Amino acid sequence: MWLKPEEILLKNAFKLWVTEKDNEYFVLQRRRGYGEGGGGLTGLLVGTLDTVLDSTSKVAPYRILHHTPDSQVYWSIACGVTREEIVQHWDWLQQNIMRTLSVFDSSEDITSFVQGKIRGLIAEEGKSSLVLEEDPEKFREAHLRFEKWFELPTEEKLVTYYSCSYWRGKVPCQGWLYLSTNFLCFYSYLLGSEVKLVISWDEIWRLEKTSNVILTESIHVLAHGEDHYFSMLLHLNETFVIMEQLADYSIKRLFDKEAFQREPALSDPLQITKRGLEAHAKSEQFRTFFRLPKEENLLEVHESFLWVPFSHFNTLGKICLSENYLCFASQDGSQCHVIIPMREVVNVEKPDSGSRALTVCVRGKRALRFSEVRDFQRLANTLRSRCGISASPQHSASSEVMYFITCFICDNPEDVTLMVGQKDSSKAVSTEALMTVFHPQDVENLDPKMLKEKMKEQSWNIHFSEYGRGTSMFFTRKTRDLIVRGVPEALRGELWMLFSGAVNDMATHPGYYTELVEQSLGTSTLATDEIERDLHRSLPEHPAFQSDTGISALRRVLTAYAYRNPKIGYCQAMNILTSVLLLYAKEEEAFWLLVAVCERMLPDYFNRRIIGALVDQAVFEDLIREHLPQLVEHMTDLSFFSSVSLSWFLTLFISVLPIESAVNVVDCFFYDGIKAILQLGLAVLDYNMEALISCHDDAEAVTILNKFFDSVTNKDSPLPPTVQQASVGNNDKASHFNVDISELIREAYEKYGNIRSEEVESSRKRNKLHVIQTLEDTTKQNVIRVVSQEVKFSASQLDELYNLFKRQHFLSCYWTMKSPALLHHDPSLAYLEQYQLGFQQFSVLFSLLEPWAFCTSKSTLSLWIFRLIDENQDGLVNFKEFCCALDTLYSGSFTNKLKFLFKLHLPPGESIDQGNEIMCYLELRVSPNTDLCVKLTGRGKVDLQAYLKQWQNEILKKEETIKDLPRINQTQFIQFSKTLYNIFHGNPEEESLYRAVAHVTSLLLRMEEVGRRLQEPSSPTKPESSTEEASTTPETFDTSGSHNSQDAAPDLSELEWSFSFEQVLASLLNEPALVSFFERPVDVHAKLGQAKVAQLKLKANK
User: Fold this and answer.
1) Torsions phi, psi of 418, nearest 5?
2) Function, please (predicted)?
3) Alpha helices per DSSP H over 1020-1071
């Protein structure tokens, strides 16, 4: 490898380097302790020194130096891993550089010329590189070490590396941590003791920062049941964030494809860089905080002051700019932030060039003044270009701008509607919230509840007059206080749209919902069937859903969303949530609120495995341990709370609280996200602490919580009794105390409001690894339980086999996005179908596990086996099919093994044109347009009849006997004999086995000849031909077999002879050498161990 020329001190280097070649201008050296004469104490000391100091010499023990005769300065210009590599560089210098150097007069010119040439070579190599690293030279050297030490495939992309200590028990090993796209690797070499660790990200169960008495701060990694600790990191937080990103990336790409498809920035595993991961993490945090669409990315961050008119002072914070939004968040503890869509900006002014300030004017006579912006000129130009505003000449703040700032709120309330930007809705779509239709407010009704409702509205109107209304409203502590007290019925839909960010989705997609409704109308899928089944179960006690108006609106929203997002389609609990949204929001608004909840606020909640809900339950358990230690002491098993709280998270407490109380919880959720649900859950458990501690079993605890939820009321709700929900299972309310929902929410914020959203997101990432791996482990146990009933492998052997099978599936996915196995991995399928191998992956794994290690025609044999065990002919083999075939070859009787080989040469196993067949299977199912891309097309209509027929066939399937096998014809028999010869090739008993096969072949042919003579005595025979066939030897069989088979075809029609399996079996049983060969036991444990070690290396060597 050519190196950027660096000056080195050679005075003391002779102790560590040995010169092997030199001339007038170059020196080739070898590191002492390597190569011939290496090892011993010198080798140990030099190797340890190289590892600790991160020396390139550890993996590149050869180098070339440049010098001139009249100078003592040496320049390193190349290094090499092997002698062949460095000699190749040396020869290039001799042929291309040496002759040119003689024309220069001075040493300085010679050195400059050599350095220029070397830099040119490096630049040429850099052009083929996919990405540019921050320090290309250092990174190239690190990548060289990474490739040398871990022998991973060349496609594996190194992301970054760090110096650290790895703890083996209580002993630290100083070395280097390498983080790549698919693996976490560590290498250390101290005094002859080499430590090498390779863990794939998809095997990690837990990743967290820890500290204890010995390790002040370290990173804990749990994989394969083993704990690994890394400490002494210079940038521990940075390292942890990168590791967290890579683990999350691997989980999304390999296990959770639905989430991964929403991450276009990380679509190519070969393009992942440290810089890209950091940018992705910041963009993700930015979108989460400001509730922005997934398409937005954080482009620029500027520190500045923002003039806050309601407080009359400048607040310090950061301007965050994305493609379509300008956002500001304070950093002085005022919890103030504002979101300005670019579509709302009408002008960008620079009041005074000396003040480094700019004013952003938005619709509705509103303006925001930013000051002390370091790069205000560039920011102003960027904003103008993104908003399509032409630059205006600089001038001092005009009276118009000052008027905007003073009159922060528009005088005309109708201007607020500009934020939505919606088109005329279809006549079929409801344009009113259902609560407005079924419970219109009575203006003349002046009962205490309505008066309190009017007071709430007045409080919010005052808030709007001070802080703004619509998309450019300021969010402050006062906003949260008003939310906690309760949102007025009339403003609930508008505020839900604003707080969730759904208002921006709706504004940027005018007419989208109407088009979806028209397109999805009349479609029939599994999702629509489930929707129809659940329509009348959605708030059945509410008048709105006892009429066709409410039911039709609910049907349209759910069907449109299932059509928009077929990966989710429809999931139970979505109907309950959507019903509540339709009560307070217009139909189109309810649709966009559902989009915000399912795709941003509650990611991965609404799918078959409800991963998001399980993750948040794990977060909830962590918070219980932290905030309710008394409860933890009494109930050590917190899984009870996970099962009880599932409905809390899935329905936002709507399913357990009366509707008039549940909507207050939904208010808080749209403002604070999942943090509000976690806080309320803690408050509920805290409220019932004494009762829960005194209960004796889970059933009693469930009863206590149900009674508590029945007692929760909303004393301020203006809804009439016909709309309010009756308490479930508690008719004697008078004998039970009541809890007001506003008081419960206020208590939750007072006690647990210090829980930060950032901590919740971090806990989500940490627990997601454990949840995913637990689900994967459950899948494995279920598969093993099913397969173990049909094979002779032990449970531990099946466990190792499953890990190998799954790893082979992933090896086809690590470095590409178009792998057939990855395209067809669907977690919604049955356990056995989740991981399958195409022919190429199967061929590799079978070559590692095949019982006949001396087989020469592996590709052909693998193809036949693949075709035979692929029962449904879909080009994919599942774990059960793989294990049954392997079990036959490992543990089957002589008869079963022979029957398996016999069936390989019958259709569909055997095929004449093997080359074309192999190519066919390599290309099979690669196209994403095939019907099998997803057997369940986006949770669409499943072919249930096909599944039922398959199950029926499995139930009725009887065990195959040897009499059921068809006869084998001449061409197939010749190929069968060749297969036997190939299996024996290289075996110590090869000669005796060959003779045995030749004897069996001769005997069978003579038997067939005699049989034909007895049946057709008048027909002419050709004994010479038979005798010639009978004396066939291994040399006469061409292992490729294709042209011999074609030549034999004319004879087939003339002779028309064949053999039954009984004849072949009887003949082979007479040969003890053959019987002992096939009945020889296979060391399964050793085979599995060898395959585990060789699996990754085999991929690397390809």
Assistant:
1) -65, -20
2) Involved in vesicular recycling, probably as a RAB11B GTPase-activating protein.
3) 1023-1030, 1042-1055, 1061-1069
Distance of alpha carbon 337 from alpha carbon 331, whole angstroms: 10
Containing H/E element for 109?
A: helix 107-127
Cα 557 from Cα 594, distance rounded (Å): 9
Element (H, E) at 305: strand 300-308
Q: Tell me whether strands 739-740 and 712-713 are parallel, antiparallel or unpaired.
A: parallel
User: Hey, what are 18's tokens?
Assistant: 């040995």
Instruction: For tokens 């001396």, name the residue.
Output: 854
Give the orientation angle of helix 477-485 with respect to helix 659-672, to 10 degrees.
170
| pLDDT of 851 strictly over 80 | yes
606 vs 569: CA distance, rounded Å: 9
- Range from 299-308, 536-545, 571-580 carrying the lowest mean pLDDT: 536-545
Alpha-carbon distances, residue 984 vs 775, 851, 1078 (angstroms): 44, 12, 11
Question: Angle between the 659-672 and 674-687 helix axes, to the nearest 10 degrees?
Answer: 130
Distance CA 704, CA 725 (A): 20
Mean pLDDT score, 37-58: 54
Residue 1098 corresponds to which amino acid? L
- Burial (CB < 10 A; 0-12, 13-18, 19+), residue 40, is exposed
Cα separation, 188 vs 893, whole angstroms: 48
pLDDT of 752 above 90: yes
Mean pLDDT score, 386-413: 50
Report the range of poorest mean pLDDT among 420-434, 493-507, 550-564, 990-1004.
Answer: 420-434
CB 409 within 8 A of CB 366: yes
Phi, psi dihedral angles at 667 (to 5 degrees): -55, -50
Nearest Cα to Cα of residue 383 among 417, 416, 413, 359: 359
CB 328 within 8 A of CB 337: yes
CB 250 within 8 A of CB 182: yes
544 CB burial (10 A radius; 0-12, 13-18, 19+): buried
The string of pLDDT tens digits covering residues 163-201 is: 888 988 778 888 899 999 889 999 988 766 788 999 999
Q: Which has the minimum average pLDDT: 129-133, 144-148, 333-337, 784-788?
A: 129-133
Residue with the two structure tokens 């006062």: 478
Residue 359 · residue 368 · CB < 8 Å:
yes
pLDDT of 797 higher than 70: yes
Query: Percentage of the chain surpassing pLDDT 90?
Result: 24
Q: Which of 263-267, 550-554, 736-740, 871-875 has the highest mean predicted lDDT (pLDDT)?
A: 550-554
Strands 366-371, 325-330: pairing kind = unpaired
Question: What is d(CA 85, CA 141) in angstroms, rounded to the nearest whole number?
Answer: 15
DSSP letters for 9-37: --TTGGGTEEEEEE-SSEEEEEETTSSTT
**Token pair belonging to 548:** 């066709």
Residue 304 contacts residue 323 (beta carbons within 8 Å):
no
- List the structure tokens of 976: 């069968």
- pLDDT band of 1038, cuts 50, 70, 90: very low
Chain Cα centroid distance, residue 468: 41
Long-range contacts of 84-92 (CB under 8 A, 24+ apart): 85/1, 86/28, 86/62, 87/28, 89/2, 89/64, 90/21, 90/26, 90/28, 90/64
DSSP state of 418: G
Residue in 863, 887, 859 with CA at minimum distance from that of residue 875: 863
Per DSSP, 770 falls in state H
Q: Could you give the CA distance from residue 239 to residue 245 in angstroms, rounded to a whole number?
A: 10
Which pLDDT does position 950 carry in this prediction? 62
Residue 578: predicted pLDDT = 94
Query: What is the average per-residue pLDDT within 727-748?
Result: 69
Residue 18 — φ and ψ, nearest 5°? -120, 125
Q: How far apart are CA 1073 and CA 990, in angstroms?
A: 10
Contact 476, 467 (CB under 8 A): yes
